[in-house]
Amino acid sequence: MSTLHTVNKSPFATRDLQSCLDHCRDGDAVLMIEDGVYGALAGTAVSDAVSARAGALKIYVLTPDVNARGLPEARLSDVVTGVDYDGFVDLVTSHDRTQAWL
Amino acid sequence: MSYQVNGHTIEHDEEGYITNLSDWSKELADEIAKTENIEMNDEHWEVVNFLREYYDEYQIAPAVRVLIKAIKKSMGPDKGNNKYMYELFPYGPAKQACKIAGLPKPTGCV
Amino acid sequence: MSDIKKFLYVNRRAPYGTIYALESLEVVLIGAAFDQDVSLAFLDDGVFQLTKGQNTDGIGVKNFSPTFRALGDYEVTKFYVERESLAERGLTEADLQEITYEDEDDDWAEKPSIRVVGRDEMAAIMADQDVVLSF
To answer: How far from each other are the two terminal CA atoms of chain C, in whole angstroms?
Structure first.
């Protein structure tokens, strides 16, 4: 029984990503979409918080949203896995529920 | 779209619910009831007054089953039942009584 | 009865700055027509929705905080409020309005609807749902 959490706000503008990470349970997945993809960057004020949970959680980022914002792949944290839209759908169907951190 | 009461014009929406809740008066209630083919008697007034008090306390027009349950609690099972309430307000106790009471349409009512 | 699902409405926004809080309440009221096992969660700024003494006369919008007290009539009786979110905002349970319901299975005894829970318990409640609706 696990949950897919989606985060769509920049972690530098809101606490949504932090609150999400605080409420995830081991085995859950977090998918960063829209402005949430900035949370996937390495070497930022929030990257340690993301890395700290990466062992217990799966962390994904939606690649089309990354590309749209011109974030180079080399700048993404290596604890984050990129997925496309089909991958997004697979994540939804392979978890028991989806919870949006709007 | 409006009701006319004592020379005043009171706006309502396309379903007959008044637009500005503070426009309500007993005379207006009688007028709205007429358009619903209801002749207001003490039993009707009891429900309408109950709804106005409920709205005043909770800021909400209750759904029909909630209204009937609340009436039952307040006035007893002889009144707090579907048959009694639909005899008073044949087209839906919440819908019609709320309209007459000058409240918005109950949330979730289509 | 097996069709009954567990629905959690997650409220994380303060009441009047955006429409989210009011929309959530409206969906709860509409959804209550369907026999489901409904819980509400209040965390982050969502805890501000339940504070006492709200008065919107000066801002021209409806004060919907009294409507939370009607939810017991709609059989919505579980309000989970996160303790850490309260503390971060300098609030305690005493700052929240009293919300009660009458327990049909216990001779209509009046009981509190608000249950203050820790973050771990909140995470467990979220993980125990069939459907999570976020506002």
So the answer is: 28
B47 touches B53 (CB < 8 A): no
* CATH class of the domain whose range is A3-101: alpha beta
Chain C interface includes A75 (CB < 8 A): no
Q: Is there a single domain that holds both residue B24 and residue B70?
A: no
Q: Is B9 helix (H, G, I), strand (E, B) or coil?
A: strand
Q: Do C127 and A25 touch (CB under 8 A)?
A: yes
State the amino acid at position B106 in one-letter form: P
pLDDT digits (tens, 9 = 90+) for A30-74: 999 999 999 999 999 999 999 999 999 999 999 999 999 999 999
Whether the model clears a pTM of 0.95, i.e. scores above it, the answer is no
Domain residues for C90?
A: 6-134
Q: DSSP string of C50-99?
A: GBS----GGGTS---GGGGGGGGGGT---EEEEHHHHHHTT--GGGBPP-
- B17 with B105: CB under 8 angstroms? yes
